[in-house]
Amino acid sequence: MPNDDIGFIKLGQEAEIRVNTYDFVKFGTLKGTVSQIAADATEDPGGEGAVFNYIVMVKTDRTHLGPGPTDQPVVPGMQVTADFKIGERTILSFLTDRVSQTTNTALRER
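Structure (tokenized):
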């Protein structure tokens, strides 16, 4: 988890996991909850420059994807993409927040 985003992640928070190996449209996603957050960031050796990330562990509700006989196993080492629910907004507020923000700062001077 990037340093910029870690402040929004809490223990017990809901997560939705997509396993990159499998098409999530066909096989779906895994539901999970944040079970552990690293105390310190570690440097990403593959990144350019100094890139620091936090390790976040998510406990999932199952170890496979798909309904019944077409179940696909999820095993350690598979790459995943995690979406964390950090709040709720209506579509209207999502669309109007930018306009409100622009209006509030339009005639101000720094």
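The longest helix spans residues 91-105. The helical segments are 24-27, 91-105.
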